[in-house]
Amino acid sequence: MKTFSPTPMRSVLQVTTRPRLGPLGHSSQLPSRLSKRSSQRYARAAQTFSPQPKKVLNLVLRRPAWSSHRSYNNNSYGYYTPESFWVRNKPNIVVGSIIGFCCVTYYYKWTAENLAAKGNHARADLIRRNFVNSGENLREGRWWVMISSSFAHGNLMHLGFSVLPIWGFGRPLVGLLGVPCFMGLCVISAVSSSRAYIYWEDTKETLRKEMFNRRWDKPKDPRVLGIQISKERALAISGSGGAHYGGSQGASGIACGLTGARVCIMPWAWTSYFSILPMPLWAGETLLTIASVVGMATGYAPIVGHAGHLGGTAVGIAYYYGIARPWLRRTGRF
């Protein structure tokens, strides 16, 4: 009888591969290596089962079952790949871009003021028409000022106090909500803050006209937001000096919206307001809300947009419970 001597590769395949074993039952179903005698069981390699090398290599090199149904680290290769720069730095990039745009807008506004002092008012007019949230701009159809005004600031202190909470509260929200949901929160907070400011300024302007122009001939006291107030309180709200009805600027509305959403997610988390007052988020948000209400009722610090702060906070809370929270639960993130 003519024998065949296998090659080394064939021997390796014979050792590493075996036929699939079925369930043990009758003796006729036992594997051949158990039913044969010892002399047959330890036969030479040439007489054992040896499939074709191509089929064996396909079995060895085939992707595991788990990698054919899901991806590892968001890729389709089935093995680890390093995360991209965008994935590793997404919160810093998104929030840093917002702060960077605020800084660029402030620099442009600063140069416009310097040119206006020298007699060139072209840039100053562009800033006034496109980066100031005012009733005049809205009546003339420039609706984008409700968003663009959030990136313009009056001075460096205003810029710092606006972007500091955005940097602190924004980055965790980017990682939790994702970029689209986070940007939606920023846009809605900016719009609601601007609309709340315009509504409150219209209310104050109506009171101012009725009080200072001596057209208050009503027998009853005036009403603000459906609440009856005294004439003295109306005088304090409208501004004792009859300030000019201008506009608003600043990213504080976005910051209040982010703070409102963050306090709903983790109300007991401790933070340092203005880096000097450590307290839980819910306590700090409550104090800021009370301060805004008192400022609106007494006319204290009229240069501060108290109504815009309340509008941004309210929409941030509503956005979380109406949009962000259902989406987080549906995706299993929260």
UniProtKB/TrEMBL annotation:
What are the entry keywords?
Answer: Hydrolase, Membrane, Transmembrane, Transmembrane helix
List residues of the Peptidase S54 rhomboid domain: 141-324
Signal sequence range:
none
Segments traversing the membrane:
173-198, 309-328
- One of the Pfam families matching this protein, by short name: Rhomboid
Gene Ontology molecular-function annotations: serine-type endopeptidase activity
| Compartment(s) where it occurs, according to its Swiss-Prot or TrEMBL record | Membrane
Name the InterPro entries for this protein: Peptidase_S54_rhomboid_dom, Rhomboid-like_sf, Rhomboid_protease_S54
Q: How does it sit in the membrane?
A: Multi-pass membrane protein
**This protein's GO CC annotations:** membrane
What's the family?
Belongs to the peptidase S54 family.
**Name the UniProt record assigns to this protein:** Peptidase S54 rhomboid domain-containing protein
The lineage is: Eukaryota, Fungi, Dikarya, Ascomycota, Pezizomycotina
